[in-house]
Specification:
mainly beta; signal; single chain; eleven-stranded mixed β-sheet; Immunoglobulin-like; 1 helix; disordered N terminus; five-stranded mixed β-sheet; PKD_dom; 7 domains; PKD domain-containing protein; flat
Length: 967
């Protein structure tokens, strides 16, 4: 075996590989295709095929093959191809490997899904998991990339892989490779294993999985730790591919796919096909200490130490890969900031040989232009430097950096006024973090609780509602949207970053600290809206309120005035003035209550409606002497009660649209058994949590202080209810008002009753077939079945039976259908005019409410069939015995099929009918001569079983046409 080293990174080849010629082996070790849309007005893409070649010299080296790899045919997935010439060749690993770049542009005609592919003629000879290894060189190398083109993707690019796939493995030790993939658009990446592909022709556009490919674990016996089974897997998040552990030396190929996702939609796939060479060596792979993921605000200077050790005490080299470095796979800077905006990250003491334990420092001065939703992946690689000719081994460590936007600073809130009434003005410091197009989102909620936000959380906490968006140049905003006095409001601001490429570079900043404000109370507060009388035209509601809180009689200018308004419905907004009350705001004045009885033009129908009230407060402007509105209260509605009947129960529900909270209180339920005029007894104190408020009355009275009215509810009675709610303002300024009580309207309802009668017990007078004689039921064609039953009973059944329903089915297999019904007290029924007694019955009881019991027992009656034929008849026209017909009294015959044969088997007559009557003629109408005839009669009876087999009679009959004496 021969090893060639440069910078401590070996490239080696099995000495048994003998190249038959450059035309038969390319020495390509790995490759992938990447794309980038380069136009916003056309679907033009820059497409790059990156191929990694062995570039060693000598009889087994790949330099000559790599030099001659000047062009390949690229398939664009839309039916077109192009011969693409090599645009760049870069030598790495001390010129033992080369990176060949083939780049072109292509414009697609329209949106669609396109798979770009390229075929490289011949792989390397000696690939063990492409058996037989000595023939693996004739298998073409094929890679492809699939892109999804649509207008929303804008300047989308596939991810690029920044770590060359040129590491080696050792028998018995875990081998890992990380491609250090980076997506400049911030799309999410996912990784999965694949199978290397080949192509049917040298310039084929279609790839197919190599049929003889074998999973690398087939060449392993155990993992590095000695456990089993060995594994070959890829981390779907970090992309770290590991074989734990190679079991034999040699050359192996495998492939993996990187999926590109945006907003939960797959938008592309890129395949890397790569090769490693496993050697047998005592060298142990180096190790990197774990690095925790980071979450930092943009503008933070990151200094992260990276420490590596080597079990053998060898020197090591620490390298860094990722888009944050803006360094390509050839370890050269990418032009024109191709990956991310400056400043780029650096790895101090990286890519140099150090004694172990070795340390390099990852440093990155982040900035606001680099903010994105998707974390940045940074992959560190440590390579040991053993003495020659021992091959180097590597290990990887990937850590993620989530770069989030800083919060908006110095948010404050203060009360203000506008032409439209109350308002809150917000102010904050200028915000300069974010690309052009960044917006500031303003959120609000009621309540102001202390909350410590996680430093990595972005966006606002739960409970906030977006009320506005402003540009980043704004430093103030006035909120005038539906603000209520006495309510504490909390505000937070968040920066929303633009999605510049249609990708996932957007997102939100950390939330600002909250700014809280309680609007001062300069207006009255409604404290009661209670229904006094429930009437359709003369209802009555009492409304109460406080004097203006925070306003003294000498403030502003008097006289003062209340103007009470009313709207219909819980959510009514069409307010009508109903009262004007002048006040001096003196405590002795009875000016904070109004009894609303409606008017001749505005009747108060508390039976049909809830009503909603609000109160305007006016003062006298000292400069103009005019009454001027200072403020208006939050509206408050009456309590609205609803009822839903249930089985011997009534379910009550109630609601109110009020500025105080009725939650987490005790509400009282009142019931009257004698009607809406009472008396009403309190039957339950209900501890409610949150609306909707519900209580089900089953007749129980659990509040006994005013008497026990417990009794089962009857569907024949009406019950009336009213509910008293308790509530309280939640704002600290108003909690001193105490508990607020309000009554609903009176509502009457009746329960339902779903109690059913018990099923009856049914009996049937059936025929006693054994006791019938041959003459029984002779010539009878109409029959009657006699049914009788006894009523059912039980403590859980309704005894108020009004009728019985009879169900009947002709056959045992039938589903019985309703036949008739009889009123109580009848317990018998005659089913008449039947052609047969066969049939089944059951009976149900029906209550006075129309509820039907379960079926009774099922009873069935069976027919008693009879059918007998003679053996001679004389069809000579003398009116005696001229017809062959059944003997006396056939019973319950439905059909007879009759066939007659001569003694020699010739059929002479055939008929089918409800009975049998043969006059001795043949089917052609001619009289059959005297003689012996054989017959078969198939007789079907009207029995209980629909599928009952027929009676088959096979016998003979004698036809006699001459007069003779029968003995």
């Amino acid at each position: 075996m021969r090893f060639i080293y440069s910078l401590g990174l070996p490239v080696f080849f099995l000495s048994c590989i003998l190249l038959p010629g450059v035309s038969q082996a390319t020495h390509v070790r790995a490759g992938e295709i990447t794309t980038k849309r380069i136009s916003t007005t056309s679907l033009t893409y820059e497409i790059t095929f990156t191929a990694y070649y062995d570039y060693t010299t000598g009889p087994n080296g790949g330099k000559q093959a790599a030099d001659l790899a000047n062009e390949y045919t690229m398939c664009f997935g839309d039916g077109t191809t192009e011969v693409v010439k090599r645009s760049k060749i870069t030598y790495i690993n001390g010129n033992t490997s080369s990176i060949n770049i083939y780049k072109t542009t292509h414009t697609y005609a329209g949106p669609g899904t396109f798979t770009i592919g390229i075929t490289v003629v011949n792989r390397n000879k000696g690939t063990i998991n492409l058996p037989p290894p000595d023939q693996s060189l004739i298998i073409p190398f094929f890679v492809s990339t699939t892109i999804y083109i649509n207008a929303a993707l804008l300047t989308n690019s596939t991810p690029v892989m920044l770590n060359p796939p040129l590491d080696s493995g050792r028998v018995g030790q875990k081998f890992c490779h990380n491609p250090a993939a980076f997506d400049a658009d911030g799309d999410s990446l996912a990784y999965r294993l694949s199978v290397p592909k080949t192509a049917p022709t040298d310039n084929s556009c279609v790839g197919r999985a190599i049929a003889v490919y074998q999973d690398p674990t087939r060449f392993s016996t155990a993992r590095e730790d000695g456990g089993a089974p060995p594994t070959f897997s890829i981390n779907p998040i970090t992309g770290e591919l590991c074989w734990d552990a190679p079991g034999e030396l040699g050359q192996f190929n495998f492939a993996f796919i990187i999926e590109e996702w945006r907003n939960g939609v797959l938008i592309g796939e890129i395949t890397r096909d790569m090769q490693i060479i496993v050697v047998d060596s005592p060298n142990k792979r180096p190790l990197i200490q774990p690095i925790p993921d980071l979450c930092v605000e943009a503008g933070t200077l990151i200094n992260q130490p990276v420490t590596a050790t080597d079990p053998d005490g060898q020197r090591v080299i620490i390298s860094g890969f990722g888009g944050v470095f803006n360094i390509g796979a050839d370890r050269q800077p990418l032009p024109a900031a191709e990956l991310i905006q400056p400043a780029y990250a650096r790895l101090i003491n990286g890519d140099i040989t150090q004694n172990q334990p070795a340390t390099a420092t990852f440093t990155w001065q982040t900035n606001c232009n680099q903010i994105r939703e998707t974390p940045y992946d940074v992959t560190f690689k440590v390579t040991d430097v053993p003495p020659k000719p021992t091959p180097s081994l590597v290990s990887f460590q990937t850590f993620r950096i989530r770069l989030i936007g800083p919060p908006i600073q110095n948010l404050t809130a203060r009360p203000t006024a506008t032409a439209n009434g109350r308002a809150i003005q917000l102010n904050w410091s200028p915000y300069t973090c974010g690309l052009p197009g960044t917006k500031l989102a303003i959120y609000r909620k009621e309540g102001c609780e202390p909350l410590v936000l996680d430093k990595c959380s972005t966006g606002v906490p739960p409970g906030y509602t977006l009320i506005a968006q402003v540009p980043t140049s704004a430093t103030t905003y006035t909120d005038t949207s539906a603000l209520r006095r006495g309510v504490t409001y909390s505000y937070r601001l968040v920066a929303l970053y633009p999605d510049v490429n249609g990708g996932t570079n957007g997102g939100a900043s950390r939330a600002s600290e909250q700014a809280c404000l309680n609007l001062p109370l300069l207006a009255p507060v409604i404290t009661q809206v209670t229904v006094d009388s429930t009437q359709t035209a003369t209802g009555q509601i009492t409304v109460r309120w406080t004097r203006p809180i925070g306003l003294n009689p000498g403030d502003l200018g008097g006289p003062y005035q209340y103007r009470l308004q009313r709207a219909t419905g819980l959510d009514g907004t069409t307010y009508t003035p109903i009262a004007t009350i002048n006040t001096s705001l003196q405590p002795s004045a009875a000016d904070t209550v109004y009894i609303d009885r409606g008017s001749s033009t505005s009747a108060l129908n508390t039976v049909a409606n809830a009503y909603r009230y609000r109160l305007e407060f006016y003062y006298t402007d000292p400069t103009t002497g005019q009454l001027t509105r200072l403020d208006v209260t939050e509206p408050a509605s009456s309590v609205r009660l609803a009822a839903s009947p249930a089985n011997r129960q009534i379910t009550l529900s109630w609601q109110a649209n009020v500025p105080w909270s009725n939650d987490k209180q005790t509400h009282d339920i009142y019931r009257s058994r004698t009607g809406p005029n009472g008396p009403f007894n309190k039957i339950r104190e209900v501890a409610v949590q949150a609306a909707p408020y519900v209580f089900t009355d089953d007749g129980t009275d659990s509040f006994l202080a005013d008497g026990n009215t417990s009794r089962v509810l009857s569907a024949d009675s009406s019950y009336c209810y009213r509910v008293m709610t308790r509530g309280q303002y939640t704002d600290a300024q108003l909690t001193r008002l105490g508990i607020l009580t309000n009554y609903s309207q009176i509502l009457c309802a009746s329960p339902t009753d779903t109690t059913r009668p018990c099923p009856p017990s049914l009996s049937l007078d059936s025929l006693a077939c054994a006791r019938l004689t041959n003459e029984s039921l002779c010539d009878q064609t109409s029959f009657t079945n006699q049914l009788s039953w006894t009523p059912g009973g039980g403590p859980s059944c309704d005894a108020n039976v009004a009728a019985y329903k009879i169900y009947y089915g002709r056959y045992r297999q039938d589903t019985l259908a309703a036949l008739s019904s009889v009123a109580v007290p009848a317990t018998r029924f005659e089913h008449s005019n039947l052609s047969t007694v066969a049939g089944c019955y059951y009976v149900t009881a029906v209550s006075q409410r129309g509820l039907e019991s379960a079926p009774s027992n099922k009873v069935c009656n069976e027919a008693c069939p009879s059918f007998v034929l003679p053996n001679v008849f004389t069809p000579n026209g003398d009116g005696k015995n001229d017809v062959f017909t059944p003997l006396k009294c056939p019973r319950f015959v439905e059909q007879v099929s009759f066939v007659v044969y001569t003694r020699w088997g010739a059929k002479v007559y055939e008929s089918t009918g409800a009975t049998l009557s043969w006059d001795g003629r043949g089917s052609d109408g001619s009289a059959l001569p005297t003689g012996l005839y054989y017959y078969q009669a198939t007789v079907r009876f009207a029995l209980l079983d629909r599928n009952a087999p027929p009676l088959i009679l096979k016998s003979w009959v004698q036809i006699i046409r001459e007069e003779m004496t029968l003995r």
